[in-house]
Structure formats: C-alpha cells, structure tokens
Amino acid sequence: MADLLSAAALLLTAITVIYTVWNGEVRTALAIPPPDDVRNARPAIHTVRTTRHQRATPLMVIAILDVLVFAPPSIGLLWTSISLIVSREGRYDAVVASLILIWLFTIVLASVLVQEFVRLRSRERELADPQTYIR
User: Fold this and answer.
1) In 3D, which of 71, 63, 65 has the Cα closest to residue 111?
2) pLDDT tens digit sequence for 24-78
3) HEC sequence for the chain
4) Domain boundaries, the chain
5) What interhelical angle do 94-128 and 57-87 show, nearest 10?
6) Is residue 62 packed enough to be buried (19+ CB in 10 Å), middle (13-18) or exposed (0-12)?
7) What's the rounded Cα separation, in Å, for the pair 81 and 93?
8) What's the rounded Cα separation, in Å, for the pair 100 and 87?
C-alpha cells in the first residue's frame, strides 16, 4: 500500500510541477488580444494552437491517465473505508486516507487541465472567427 501511495504522490507532484512551469505560457496564450483584422490573426492563432498542442494536451492526457490508473485501488479503498465507517468496525488508516486524498487532488488537477484545454480551443476558434473582428 505504501508503494502505491508513493507512486501516486510522485506522479501528482510531477504533474503539478510541470503545470506550474507551463501555466504562464497557457495564461499568455489565453490573454492574446485579437488583432485589428482577421487576416492578421495567423500568428495569434498559431501561438494559441501551439500552446494547446505542446503544453495543455500532453499535461491533460497525463493527468487523466493518472486518475484512471489509480481509480480502481482508490475507489476500492474508498468504498471499503466508507463501509467500515458506517459499520463502526473500521480503524483510521493514514496511508489509505492519504491515497484517497491524493487521488481526489489528481481529479481536481485533471479537471483544471481539461478546462484550460477547452479555453485554449475556444480562444483559437474565437481568433479564427471573422465575426470577432466586426466592429
């Protein structure tokens, strides 16, 4: 069980560190203002698309895979823990509680990464839409 906890914690830490390093690029890409004319939007679209492909997509996929890999043991432990608490037979296990907590944090992080991916895709579409430039 401790090996599982160590692996989950290490993966969450790695994903979080990479997210911290790459988050500035994502924020910058999301803040790119539309140029004056749709014909000048190519560099902005390219920046947003590149950020989405090279930063947001890989990190999102890794986080989702991390959630899926640790789902079976985490769900099983969560179910067992709830059953033991309800029956008042269970004792507190810090390792089990930590694994469940790390898995839940990973779900939250994966959700944030999916939202950023969607926002980058929406921004790219907005920059490519001629209606954005009609004033």
Assistant:
1) 63
2) 999 999 999 988 888 889 999 999 999 999 999 999 999 999 999 999 999 999 9
3) CHHHHHHHHHHHHHHHHHHHHHHHHHHHHHCCCCCCCHHHCHHHHHHHHHHHHHHHHHHHHHHHHHHHHHHHHHHHHHHHHHHHHHHCCCCCCHHHHHHHHHHHHHHHHHHHHHHHHHHHHHHHHHHHCHHHHCC
4) 2-133
5) 150
6) middle
7) 9
8) 20
- Per the listing, tokens 């269970």 go with 90
Measured CA to CA, the distance from residue 98 to residue 104 in angstroms comes to: 10
Q: What is the pTM of this model?
A: 0.88
Give the whole-angstrom CA distance, residue 11 versus residue 5: 10
Residue 89, pLDDT score: 76
The Cα 123–Cα 16 span in angstroms is 24
